Structures are given as C-alpha cells and as structure tokens.
Amino acid sequence: MKFYLILMLFVPSVSLADSEIIPPKIAAQMNTMLEACWRDKSCETSEVLSFCGDSIDAGGAPLEWVKCQNEILTWWDAKLNEVYKEKIALQKTYDVDRSDGYYEDLLRNMQRAWVPFRDAACNYLAHGQPSGSGATNDEIDCKILKTTEQIYFIQNPLG
What is the pTM of this model? Predict the structure, then answer.
C-alpha cells in the first residue's frame, strides 16, 4: 500500500541538521527532500523513509531505524505546529466580534482530541494483531501519515 503526503501551504523550514542519528550529509539530503515534498504538496512516504536506510550502516540495528523515523516524525510535527499556530491566529480574527473565543476554541478542542486519536489509531494498526518485529516502524509510519493528513485538514477543513 502506498501512502502519499499531501500538503498545501509553505511554512518556514524545520531542519534535521542537529540530528544525533542521521549523518550530516544524509540530513542535508533529507531536508532538501522534505522541503520539496512540502513545496510541491506531495511525495511518497517510502521516498522520505528510504533516507533512514541510507543513514544507517548496512545491517544496522532496528533501533537506529526507529530513531531515524522518529526524527522524520518530529520534522512533520514541527510543520503541524506551525500550521496550527497560523490557523489559531486566523481563528482569533473570526472571534473579533465575539467575546467567548468560539472559533479559536473549536480548533483547539479538535486538535486536542486528534492527538490521542492519532496515537491510539496508530498503536492499534501496529499492535492490534500478532505481527513481526516491524510493529514499531509501522506505528511511526502511521503517525507520519496521519500528521501530514492533519496538516492538510487544518489548512482546508472542507477539502
């Protein structure tokens, strides 16, 4: 099954340059690819995650792969936070004529409910049935996909 990252807004860059896991040359290549995915509004997750394989020695430990995936997830989480902050600012402008912060609260409550939903859904996907040693990788891949979907949803809730 192929998953695609779909993105709709340019946000200032987040960098993997400070990675403790990914060698600097690979981190620079990953940053270039992630920024291109962001700018071009789509890319296949397998393309991005292939850099984890490139950053780990042949036969590298599964733990190193998981750490690399987590760094990619952290990159997308930072993008989500930037988009969320921009949308909160926009929601506040809708509340100008209201004293209760209604529109801002709608977004905030939705996002607060979404985070545990994402984590539970991805935990179920990875661990809800007997599986092999790749369950943790599957869980992180799921979180990356759902995070990029949430970015799109926050930007364009009506599709």
Answer: 0.74
